[in-house]
Amino acid sequence: MSQDLTDLQLLHELEPVVEQKINRHMAMRKDWNPHDYIPWQEGKNWYALGGQDWEPGQSKLSEVAQTAMVQNLLTEDNLPSYHREIAMNFSMDGPWGYWVNRWTAEENRHGIALRDYLVVTRAIDPVDLEITRMEQVTRGFSPGQNQQGDLFAESLFDSVMYVSFQELATRVSHRNTGKECNDPIADQLLARVSADENLHMIFYRDVSAAGLDIAPNQAMTSLHRVLRNFKMPGYTVPAFRRKAVIIAVGGVYDPRIHLDDVVMPILKKWRIFEREDFTGEAAALRDDLGKLIEELEDACDKFEVAKHRRLERERQVAEKKAMKNLLVTTASTA
Questions:
Q1: 219 touches 208 (CB < 8 A)
Q2: Which SS3 state, helix, strand or coil, does residue 272 take?
Q3: DSSP letter at 42?
Q4: Has residue 301 been placed in a domain?
Q5: Could you list the residue range(s) of the whole structural domain that residue 138 is in?
Q6: What's the rounded Cα separation, in Å, for the pair 142 and 154?
Q7: Binding site residue list for Fe cation
Q8: What is the pLDDT of residues 105-162, one digit of tens each?
């Protein structure tokens, strides 16, 4: 394998591409205001100002919608960590620095809008949300950190390729959450947020594509490392595994969605399995990505079986509960 470029060399080589993609982004982006997507007429004071604090019955959202909305919001809340990570890996100079700050400013709107919607509509417990936010942001986040806290080596390529997949996954999650809410306002808000995420994904995806052309073997090494260790940034949220199951079974974001709507579209866009410029170890890593796709397919099949069993158990429990309630009602009126 040829000598790898340093991150400083890659930053310099990719700078013209970054400037071009920023110009495209600024031409495509749509400015919007978080306050325009909040039903303020539904708001009322909380206990501290003589009002009423939250009760579960006030929420109009299903358990799946509540869980997904809170998970999405808590993920957005870790923006300080994300800003730090890309600033450290991208540089704050020139076009790279402009993008770091522009991306951060656009992302900040998402947490503002989601929190305002959830609090104003009393869709979730705001006290529990704040407690969890404090814990989540204190934990921080690094894309090279797995659930055991171990770090894999990070580089410019690691970062830009990770966010290519992560931004697309976030877009999909927001969009599906909006549909699950069964509320036209929430759907409209999350469609707006997901449109931002889509443009961010396009930026990172196309910068990564340029990197693949400049240093294909080095880029493939990072791509393999990212996909083999991929975790969504929300994995640091307390009780993540339980929430992820609820979201997956509810059809908001599951293994099939991850493979078909996130992983494969980007790999196809980069023509990973068609390119002929990978050599040596990088070529072997590309072949291993083929095996990873097979493993993800197997995980999708196993998930569907487990999902069917879970839903059947829930149906049986609901039937028993309904029968018990019927018997109690019948006895009380006899």
A1: yes
A2: coil
A3: G
A4: yes
A5: 7-332
A6: 9
A7: 76, 107, 110, 167, 197, 200
A8: 999 999 999 999 999 999 999 999 999 999 999 988 876 554 444 444 478 999 999 9
Give domain status of residue 2, yes or no.
no
What is the C-alpha separation between 205 and 294, in angstroms, rounded?
Answer: 23
What are the φ and ψ backbone dihedral angles of 265, each rounded to 5 degrees? -60, -40
pLDDT in tens, 306-318: 888 877 877 777 6
User: Is the distance from CB of 303 to CB of 254 less than 8 angstroms?
Assistant: yes
Asked if 282 contacts 216 with a C-beta cutoff of 8 angstroms, the reply is yes
By C-alpha distance, which of 153, 272, 155 is closest to 212? 272
How many domains does the structure of the chain reveal?
A: 1
In a domain, 200, yes or no: yes
pTM of the full structure: 0.89
Work out the number of other CB atoms within 10 angstroms of the CB of residue 85.
21
In angstroms, the CA 312 to CA 266 distance is 35
Rounded to an integer, what distance in angstroms lies between the CA atom of residue 166 and that of residue 145?
14
Q: What's the gap between Cα 230 and its chain centre? A: 12
Specify the CATH number for the domain of residue 260. Answer: 1.10.620.20
Return d(Cα 85, Cα 150) in angstroms, integer.
Answer: 16
Residue 121 belongs to some domain of the structure:
yes
